[in-house]
Design brief:
- The chain has about 270 residues and is α/β, with parallel strands linked by helices.
- Helix content is about 15%, strand content about 35%.
- The chain is built from five helices and 18 strands.
- Helix 4 packs parallel to helix 5.
- The chain starts with 8 loop residues before the first strand and ends in a 15-residue tail after the last strand.
- The mean pLDDT is about 90.
Length: about 270
Amino acid sequence: MSRAPLHRRLLTVSGVDRLGSYLVVRVDDPGGPQPEPGQFAMLAASERWGGGEDERPYLSRAFSVARRRGSESHFLLEDVGPGSRRLSELRAGERLWMLGPLGRGFTAPSAGRRAILVGGGVGIAPLAILQDTLEQDATVLLGFRDRERAEGAALLDAAIVATDDGSSGHHGLVTDLLAQEIERDPAAVVYACGPAGMLEGVRAICEVGAVPAQLALEAGMACGFGACFGCVVPRRGGGYLRVCVDGPVIDAAELDHVDAHAGAPA
């Protein structure tokens, strides 16, 4: 597992690319550790990182590493609130604070098992770096609300797309496509990240089909180190898992269900 230095780093944004409703923010991090697929970083703008009349500071925001190219780390953002809005305003040459990579990532499939990558919305991010590192081709299934968001599918290669409104690809849920793939080839392993409802659908389908699945959860975090217990989810059989240190990638078999707060924005 890649371990981050125990301090945040002040880094420079090297570029920003638009993918439909999303932005890919590229950050130059020449001295940072190589992230593993599924790990995340805590990000905060170095300036104007606060809100309200007194500019009360925001907490850092957790984002999955979408890709690592040379000295750059890439992050997929959508403007869904004040923190992500401020990060979405960053442009080349501006700076941000980064702490990471953090957490536990994906485990590669065993020999003879095909990987099926299932993503929803901004949750497609960790599947991109996973696809980059897999030795064999994977089946990629991505779900979005509409055509504009479906442009984010360009982040991965050879993606099969579903949209809620039918404006691009399959008209329906990405879990419809997953059920068909598992029926065709149950000797697969599933890797998923997306909204909580999608992840719960993936978990249930894989449980019925006895297909192993690894779920990258996303939850609000204050620290990223497991100290605050703000991101816990219930573990099957009792107790809790901290998404930041026991995950964010958690074996689906460890969960009775995916909590509503443990998914990426829809």
